[in-house]
Structures are given as structure tokens and as C-alpha cells.
Design goal:
Chain B: Keywords: Calcium, Cell membrane, Ion channel, Ion transport, Membrane, Metal-binding, Potassium, Potassium channel, Potassium transport, Repeat, Transport, Voltage-gated channel. Chain B: One of its GO terms (cellular component) is voltage-gated potassium channel complex. The complex is a heterodimer. Chain A is mainly α. Chain A has 27 helices and six strands. Chain A has a four-stranded mixed sheet with strand order 2-1-4-3. In chain A, strands 5-6 form a two-stranded antiparallel sheet. Chain B has one domain: Orthogonal Bundle (Recoverin, domain 1), CATH 1.10.238. The chains are: A mainly alpha, B mainly alpha. Chains A and B meet through helix 1 and helix 16 of A and helix 1, helix 4, helix 5, helix 6 and helix 7 of B.
């Protein structure tokens, strides 16, 4: 039920007095409301901003958080108020909805933030009032488009293929994203070159060349150098056919590919040649043959794979199909009207060019588009008057749909630009996120170095360990538990690349087998952190679990294609095992946010992270050198 | 004079027409009959009504101060202008009965609440009505019900009036009822009502007949508990 109906309930029940005397049976007993009926003021504290409202106001919508008993979860006994740790500015709008029954969308707020608040308070966004619904819908659509673009850019983009991609998949990727491999780039440019050559050849072969000796007439170049041109044409067609067949083979869904616009263009580009091969050189069909040659010009559309601007134009025209249709329709109407009028107006004139209504069509179109060739001119007064009206109206009719098309084009163009910018910035963003993740691991490693994992009494733990927040303690404890579980330890990228040199070969799947065979090496490389011997427990079994860690790693990789790193960097390995252990979405957020607490504590902070590996490296390199002989022998 | 033939005449007329339109734009010609539109807009401004003081209302009705406050806050929230017109009344009532058509009954209710017959129900009208129904004696309630049924307020209920009322109540049920709604149901109900109420069989029910018959009816008396704790 909608707003405020609850207020009128007593009235509706009272109105039942009209049914009473007419009732043939006894009325049922009314429901007893045990709780107190008197209205009271409730205090709602939202992040410090105190709101007060009548209880009845909130009870109006019993299926929301505030209207139901769910709000009791947020009741604070000491302060006798309901406390919500949410945005107070947004809460204003939510409360206004309860008060007035209309939900308004604040224009300066982010649409996603607003939707989240609504979801929290149990209000569906569909009840936004008409005054704000339009704006809400537009913003939401825009946002969704943007997100779709972003995810598309991420997914379709430069994510490296899984190593076991088939030849087909690799081919397809090479075709769709030419900048992923040099071969694809070369192919891309070669096809572009040949398209250009083909189009230029088509153009040039009609240019008149100097005639061959002995004849006076100018020949078109196509006939003078017919062999050369036909060779060129054949070569181009062969290359295009080859390209098309390759694409067809590589396409993940051949039916969809065959129906796509680009493939149709490809087919139309090469078909005339083949039809020309098949057809005999007859007189009758030569007309058709000439027509086919016209279709060769469609090769120029193949450039749209190479040019984004062409694609945008195509998109725009598609998006503005209705406006274009309207333009066409209104033009047709106007043309017919004016042509008829002009014909009858000029009928009386001697030797008039307006011989029929269809003949007048030409005049009308030329006049309405303000071309005015002058091959058909009205003579009579009426004709001249109507002709001038025709030209004036032509300007108007054509000018009307144009702004719509232009604005659509601008919108699509900006979207594309944004997508490009996104892709460019994506690399930087990913790099920063990687750094943050690395910082998290380094925090843990530093923690271990500082002796945070000692079980000893609290006096001996260094001050820097004590200063850490409870959250950090718990997180580090968790990582420590993981280490104990898997009998492996976290290290950083540098150490790993220094130590486990043997596994620089190949992809992960190969590495797991190679590692498990080198039990001794792994044992020693981790035992080199000899300083922290206190917590160097079951190291002998390190290698076995390392294999399993690798497998876990492989499993997890497939889930996060975006921003994945190559396996050689151990920090990514760590990051991912962390992800695995704390496997819900909020924890991954926690991981990225972890660097900030370290930033606060002065002894270790994110900017120092390059230094930390340095420190570790130094310590390790010293021990490395001392135990180098041991390492080599075990290898 | 110029000898113009048909089409030229038309052309000239068209040109003149366009000319007139252009002059209109410049305000030199004004088509007659457009002066009234400006004033219509002012009528849309709402009439604001303020009720009498809380104390006075408390004297006149049987509600406590707190109850009046709650009622007024709800009322004012729904009708900021302080009065309810019939359309709003009908809309509100229809929200309670989504299956059927409650427009007719709401109209009768509106007539009953609008005691001073000015086309709108103010807060006082609303509260007086509610006070009688919810806090009044049984006789008061029956009086109010009689007033509701007596459409032309002439002191007696005719069969036609009762038929209208009955039909409006049955309309609220809507189409999907069990057992199926017969067309004759209202008429039969009216007949049985008149049999019960019309003592002297003169075809109309007066107020005394009505109250007397109702007081004798066990069902009706027992159903009066319907209004026990509505507010």
C-alpha cells in the first residue's frame, strides 16, 4: 500500500459503521493491539547527526528497515537512540521519504552510493517520484553503460591468454587485438596496405592514360595496362580471401561471425571477382559484370576494422536510425506535395520542363536541399511562389533532425574516447594495486622480522610490534596460521627470484613438477633466514606443500584474469594465497586497505617497501653467501 | 486588375496567410479570445484551512489531546491544505479496497462527513464524524448510519436510496467473490432489510423504526464492538 494509507486506517474502519445495520451476520471481533498506541518521538543518530521523528512516521512503511523490527538491531541502550553508521546526508532523503511519501533523487550524489543506501534501508528505487525518476533513470543508464564499457575494456583487452589456448583462440585474439603480438600487428598493417592498394587501383584504372602508339583516342589506364591491373586485383582478392577464411576458422562462433557486419563486407568485397571468374564474357551479361565491378568499391569499408572513427560513424547512424527515418519520411512527403503543386502550376507554361510529377520530383529535391542546379526552373507566377515556399520549407525540414544526430554522435564519440582513456590508465591502475598488495605482504614480512610472531612474553616484543593495531595483529596471526598450515612461508619477490632460480623456466604447471623434485633446494632457501630460527618449524616438509601451493595458485589464477601477474613474481603468489585464504570480497578490499595502517606507523610504511626488500635482501645476501656452497651442492 | 487564374489565386492567398502569421508573431495582430487563459491559473492555488484550537476540539469531541494530535498530524501530512476534497477521499478509500470499485460508497461517506455541505471535508468534520462513530453511544452511531443512508436527508430511507447504498457496498467486493455474485443479490438484501426495519410497511424506514429495529437485533448490537480500539 502506498504512502499514508496507514494514517487513514482508523477512518476506513470507522466507515464500516455504514455496513453494520445491513449486515446479516455478526461482525468479527476487531484485532487487539497490545502495544501502546500513543505516539512517541524516536531518536535516530546517523553518524553523529541526530534526527528525530515520530514513531508513526516510520511505521508508515513496515517493509523497510526503519519501519520494521529490524531497526531494533541498531538500538543503542545507553543513549536510547537508533545508531546507524551511514551517510547522514543521504539519510536526510531517506527520512524525507518516510515523511512525505515521495522519494527524491539528489542530483549531486553518485547514483551507486544512493542505490546502496536505498538497499540498506530496504527501499526499492522504483518508487522514486516522477519529478526525479527521469534524471535517476538517465544517470543509471549512463552509469551502467560506463561500467559495461569498463568491464569490456578489461576483459577484451590485454589480459594474457591462458597458456593452453588452442591455435584457434590465439588466432582469434591476434585478429581482434592486433597489438598483442607482433605477428598480428604485421598482418594488420599488411591487410590495411592491400586494402588501400586495391582501392587506389580501382580508382586509377579509370583515369585516361596516354594512348598506345598509333591510336588517337585516350585509353583508360585499366585497358592500357590490363595485365598489371588484373594481377594486382587477383593478388588483393587472394589476400582478402585468405584473411576471411582465417577469420572464419578462428572465430569462436562461426555462425555469429558469418552474420556480423564486417564479415558481410568482406564477402561483398571479394565476391565480384569470383563471380567474374565464373561468368562467361558474354555481351548480355557484361552489363551485370560492370555492376559487379562497382561492388569492388566496398573494399573501402574494410578500413573500418582499422579505423575507430568509421566505426563510431556507423554506430551513430545505427543509433539515430529513427531520426533518419523521420527525416526521410518527412522529406518524401514534402517532395510529393511540392512536386504535385509545381507540376500543376507549370502545366500551362509552354515548353515547360515539368513534364510529369515524377519529373518534378527532381526539381523539388534539388530546391529543398538548396542545391538549385537550374536545369528546371518555374516560369509562371504561381510556380515561382510555390517554388520559393518549397525551398524555405526544405531548409527547415532538413535542419530539424540534424541536431539529434549530432548529439548522438557526440555522445558515442565521447564514450569511445573515455574507453580509450580507461584502457590507457588501466595499466597504471593495475600497477598501483599491485604495489598495494605487495605492501600488504611486506608488512607481514616486516612483522615477522621484527619478531612479532614470537610467543614469548610481551616485554621482549619490540615496540614497533606493539604499536600495531588490533586488526594488523589479527591479520598477521592469520597469515601465520596459513604458513603453519601449508608449511610454507611468505617471502617477497626479490628473495624469491634470487633464491629459487631454478624455477624461472616456463609456466606454472611445469614448475610444480620441477619444484617438487627439488626438495633440498627449497629447504635450504628458506632456511637461510636463519636469524628467525625460533619459528622455523617443519621446514623439511616445505617443499611438498609448496607444490600444493602452486596448484592452489594455478586454480586461483583462472578466477581473476584481470590484473594477473606472471608467476615468476613471488609477491603475486603471496597475494593470491592470501586471497584464497580470506576468500570473500570484503577481505580483498581489506588487503588493499592494509597498507594504510603501516603508513601510519613510522617504522615501516609503504614508501619504504622498496627499502624493505632491500633490507631483507641484504640480510639474505649475507647469509646467502655464507651458505652458498650448501645451496649449490643441494642443487 | 491582375487576372489571376485558380492556382495563382491560391498561391497569393497562401502568401497572405503566412504574412498574417508573421505579423501575429510581432504582436501586431492578436487573435481574439485569448485573454481568459491567464486568470485560470490563479484558481489552482489551494485553499488553506486551519482547524479550530486543540482545546475547543477536545471539548467538542470525545478524543483526548494526544489522540487529536496524532490524528491531526496524519491528516495534515496527507492533506497539507487542511481539507479533503471528494476526489482525494475516493482515492484514499479505494486504496483499502483494491479489488472492487469503492467510488460510490466513498461518495456517500463524503456526503455524510461533509456536514456543512461545502464540498470539502475539513479536519473538524473529519474529527466530529470519527468521534461519533468511535466514541459515541450506540444510539449516536445508529443515528450516524441513518444519516449516511438517508441520501436526500429527508428523514426517511426509501427503497431506492437503500438500493443505491447496497449496490455501492456490493460493488466494493469486486468480481471475484465466493460464491459468485448474483445480480439480484443487492435487491434481495434490500428486501430483507426493509422487511426487518419497516415496521408499519409504508415503504420507507424512518429514524425511529431504524433505531428500534437495530436495538432489537442481536447481531448488530454485538457487532458494535467493532469500534472498540480503533484509535
Amino acid at each position: 500500500m502506498a504512502a499514508g494509507v496507514a494514517t487513514w486506517m482508523p477512518f476506513a474502519r470507522a466507515a464500516a459503521v455504514g455496513w453494520l445495520p445491513l449486515a446479516q451476520k455478526t461482525m468479527p471481533k476487531p484485532p487487539v493491539d497490545k502495544k501502546s498506541r500513543s505516539d512517541e518521538i524516536l531518536f535516530v543518530n546517523v553518524s553523529g547527526l541526530r534526527f528525530q521523528t515520530w514513531k508513526n512516521t516510520l511505521d508508515r512503511y513496515p517493509d523497510t528497515l526503519l519501519g520494521s523490527s529490524e531497526k531494533e538491531f541498531f538500538y543503542n541502550e545507553e543513549t536510547q537512540e537508533y545508531f546507524f553508521d551511514r551517510d547522514p546526508e543521504m539519510f536526510r532523503h531517506i527520512l524525507n521519504f518516510f515523511r512525505t511519501g515521495k522519494l527524491h533523487y539528489p542530483r549531486h550524489e553518485c547514483i551507486q552510493a544512493f542505490e546502496e543506501e536505498l538497499a540498506f534501508y530496504g527501499i526499492i528505487p522504483e518508487i522514486i517520484g516522477d519529478c526525479c525518476m527521469e534524471e535517476y533513470r538517465d544517470r543509471k543508464k549512463e552509469n551502467q553503460e560506463r561500467l559495461a564499457e569498463d568491464t569490456e575494456a578489461e576483459n577484451a583487452g590485454d589480459a594474457p591468454l591462458p597458456p593452453d589456448a588452442t591455435l584457434r583462440e590465439r588466432l582469434w585474439r591476434a585478429f581482434e587485438n592486433p597489438h598483442t603480438s607482433t605477428m598480428a600487428l604485421v598482418f594488420y598493417y599488411v591487410t590495411g596496405f592491400f586494402i588501400a592498394v586495391s582501392v587506389i587501383a580501382n580508382v586509377v584504372e579509370t583515369v585516361p592514360c596516354r594512348p598506345i602508339k598509333g591510336s588517337i583516342k585516350d585509353l583508360p589506364c585499366g585497358e592500357k595496362f590490363s595485365v598489371a591491373f588484373s594481377c594486382l586485383d587477383t593478388a588483393c582478392v587472394l589476400i582478402f580471401s585468405f584473411e576471411y577464411l582465417m577469420r572464419l576458422y578462428a572465430a569462436p562462433s562461426r555462425c555469429d561471425f558469418a552474420r556480423s557486419v564486417m564479415s558481410v563486407i568482406d564477402v561483398v568485397a571479394i565476391l565480384p571477382f569470383y563471380i567474374g571468374l565464373v561468368m562467361p564474357e558474354n555481351e548480355e551479361v557484361s552489363g551485370a559484370f560492370v555492376t559487379l565491378r562497382v561492388f569492388r568499391v566496398f573494399r573501402i569499408f574494410k578500413f573500418s576494422r582499422h579505423s575507430q572513427g568509421l566505426r563510431i560513424l556507423g554506430c551513430t547512424l545505427q543509433a539515430c536510425a529513427s531520426e533518419l527515418g523521420f527525416l526521410l519520411f518527412s522529406l518524401t512527403m514534402a517532395v510529393i506535395i511540392f512536386a504535385t503543386v509545381m507540376f500543376y502550376a507549370e502545366k500551362g507554361t509552354k515548353g515547360t520542363t515539368f513534364s510529369s510529377i515524377p519529373a518534378s520530383f527532381w526539381y523539388t529535391i534539388v530546391t529543398m536541399t538548396t542545391l538549385g542546379y537550374g536545369d528546371m526552373v518555374p516560369d509562371s507566377i504561381a510556380g515561382k511562389i510555390f517554388g520559393s515556399i518549397c525551398s524555405l520549407s526544405g531548409v527547415l525540414v532538413i535542419a530539424l533532425p540534424v541536431p539529434v544526430i549530432v548529439s548522438n554522435f557526440a555522445r558515442i564519440y565521447h564514450q569511445n574516447q573515455r574507453a580509450d582513456k580507461m584502457r590507457a590508465q588501466q595499466k597504471v591502475r593495475q600497477a598501483r594495486i599491485r604495489m598495494a598488495k605487495k605492501g600488504a605482504t611486506n608488512a607481514f614480512l616486516q612483522h615477522k622480522e621484527d619478531g612479532g610472531l614470537q610467543d614469548g612474553d610481551s616485554d621482549s616484543t619490540p615496540l614497533c610490534v606493539k604499536n600495531r593495531s588490533a586488526f594488523e595483529h589479527q591479520h598477521h596471526h592469520l597469515l601465520h596460521c596459513l604458513e603453519k598450515t601449508t608449511n610454507h612461508e611468505f617471502t617477497d619477490e626479490v628473495t624469491y627470484s634470487e633464491v629459487c632460480v631454478t624455477d624461472s623456466v616456463g609456466f606454472r604447471t611445469s614448475r610444480s613438477t620441477s619444484l617438487s623434485s627439488q626438495q633440498g633446494a627449497t629447504t635450504t632457501c628458506c632456511s637461510r633466514r636463519a636469524k628467525r630460527r625460533a619459528f622455523r618449524l617443519a621446514n623439511s616438509t616445505v617443499s611438498v606443500s609448496r607444490g600444493s601451493v602452486q596448484e592452489l595458485d594455478t586454480l586461483h589464477i583462472t578466477k581473476t584474469p584481470a590484473g594477473t601477474q606472471y608467476p615468476q613474481s613471488r609477491s603475486s603468489l603471496n597475494a593470491r594465497t592470501e586471497d584464497l585464504k580470506l576468500n570473500c570480497a570484503d577481505y580483498t578490499a581489506a588487503i588493499i586497505s592494509i597498507p594504510t595502517p603501516p603508513a601510519n606507523t613510522p617504522d615501516e610504511s609503504l614508501p619504504n617497501s622498496p627499502a624493505i626488500p632491500g633490507i631483507l635482501r641484504n640480510s639474505r645476501s649475507s647469509t646467502y653467501n655464507t651458505q652458498e656452497t650448501v645451496k649449490i651442492s643441494s642443487l | 486588375m491582375l487576372s489571376l487564374d485558380g492556382l495563382e489565386m491560391i498561391a497569393v492567398l497562401v502568401v497572405m496567410g503566412l504574412f498574417v502569421k508573421v505579423l501575429e508573431q510581432f504582436g501586431l495582430f492578436e487573435v481574439v479570445g485569448e485573454e481568459d487563459s491567464v486568470e485560470d491559473d490563479f484558481e489552482l492555488s489551494t485553499v488553506c484551512h486551519r482547524p479550530e484550537g486543540l482545546d475547543k476540539l477536545q471539548e467538542q469531541t470525545k478524543f483526548t489531546k494526544k489522540e487529536l494530535q496524532v490524528l491531526y498530524r496524519g491528516f495534515k501530512n496527507e492533506c497539507p491544505s487542511g481539507v479533503v476534497n471528494e476526489e482525494t477521499f475516493k482515492t484514499i478509500y479505494s486504496k483499502f479496497f483494491p479489488q472492487g470499485d469503492s467510488g460510490a460508497y466513498a461518495h456517500f461517506l463524503f456526503e455524510a462527513f461533509d456536514t456543512n455541505k461545502n464540498g470539502s471535508v475539513s479536519f473538524e468534520d473529519f474529527v466530529f464524524g470519527l468521534s461519533i462513530i468511535l466514541r459515541g453511544t450506540i444510539n449516536d452511531r445508529l443515528n450516524w448510519a441513518f444519516n449516511l443512508y438517508d441520501l436526500n436527508k429527508d428523514g426517511c430511507i426509501t427503497k431506492e436510496e437503500m438500493m443505491d447504498i447496497m449496490k455501492s457496498i456490493y460493488d466494493m467486493m469486486g468480481k471475484y467473490t465466493y460464491p459468485c455474485m448474483q445480480d439480484e443479490a443487492p435487491r434481495e438484501h434490500v428486501e430483507s432489510f426493509f422487511q426487518k426495519m419497516d415496521r408499519n410497511n409504508d415503504g420507507v424506514v424512518t429514524i425511529d423504526e431504524f433505531i428500534e429495529s437495530c436495538q432489537k437485533d442481536e447481531n448488530i448490537m454485538q457487532s458494535m464492538q467493532l469500534f472498540d480500539n480503533v484509535i
